Input
Amino acid sequence: VAEHKKLLSDIGVDVDRHAQMMSMGLESYEAQFKSQNNRPKGMEYFDWFMSEIQGQRIAEINKLRAEKKPAVGTFCIFVPEEIIVGAGGACFGLCGGSPATIADAETELPRNICPLIKSAHGFKLQKTCAYTQSSDFIYGETTCEAKKKTWEILNKHHPVHVMNIPHMKREKDLKMWQEEIVEFKEHIEEVAGKKLSLDEMIEGTKIINEKRKAMQRLDSLRGMNPDVIPISGKDALFINQMGFLDDPRRYTQKVNELCDELEKRIDENNSVFEKDTPRLMVLGTPIAPPNWKLHTAVEGSGGAIINEESCIGHRYYKDNVDLDSVETEEDLMKQLMQRYSAVDCACFTPNTPRIDKILKMYEDRKADGVIYYTLSFCHTYNVESHLVTEALEAAGIPCLVIESDYSPEDAGQIKTRVEAFLESI
Ligand code: BJ8
Output
């Protein structure tokens, strides 16, 4: 413990404040997760990971840094993590799901922007996220206005590398995107102090492909069988959240082990929910830990969440990089661009493939309804909800729209609305 405290202090963490934050987080996890019935045994690993979330994993990342391997923190799924992993480094999501840092952030940022950005910025100002403190640089992107402008301020406190993500997907936009990926690779080479070989990058890509495959497997086991739901939505969400922090090889192995268990549960008809529990999909903005408010409300009101069409969810793992035709570095950069440009974030115009995908996902999963969830002041997802709900209505799909921030105050109101929705379907 003393050694770990020293590491935290060496990387600039405010150790006392961090300890308070961690004990609040662990208490909340204990109350919301451990109390669930009939959890798969494979959740033991993820419970352990939670207990070490700012412990062993932070030590592992800093060991890599000592070997001059890049450590990159991110808030967005456009980061080409294959390149970082190919360089032997670590790519991880940064803390940005807690209300406890927002007041500090508001000393530098306006109040009326999305809570994810404020929470993340506040973690840097407070120095209470050991991941942020462990990163060589933060990956920023130009997806929404609030993020784009926050990078300029965050850069005063921590190095930020901004990648220009276009807002349309025309030929000329995709060409620019590919150039941005090349530039990102050069930045990683600068941090690593060496050139990256094609083989190294292919190896990194294979590791991340395997990780995404394991997440796709989990997605299909939890949501595609109408008779048995072998894991709660809350546990599955947590596994997806941890995918942004854990070592990708170990994570892949643990998710696959859990999936083996879920397959057996399905064979044995062992569901964590009672028969005829309404099966809901969640659409929308990222759900960063410890923001478990929606899942707790739904699953505490007699519903089951079987999928998140979210960046912490399906949008992150739905596509792999096609390596079949890759012979040169340029081929790989093109495949990376193609894979990342298939991400259907609401920052794009038009974004119709997202609507087609949602309708198909709903049909494949034989779901009973959807919740369109957006963070307050996320204009892209909020505005896009109009076209999405219109398409859902035309298809006769019940939908509840929820806009919320990180404060606990609306938890009761959300639960009441969810209960009424569940009764209506
Ligand atoms: S790919 S959704 S992770 S940008 S920060 S857009 S919630 S106002 S996080 Fe996002 Fe990448 Fe898109 Fe996904 Fe809205 Fe907030 Fe902006 Fe946000």
About this structure: The pocket of Double cubane cluster is lined by residues 76-78, 114, 116-117, 143-144, 146-147, 285-286, 311, 343, 345, 347, 375, 378, 380-381 (CB under 6 Å). Residues 2-184 form a domain with the Rossmann fold fold (CATH 3.40.50.11890). DSSP finds 19 helices and eight strands in the chain.
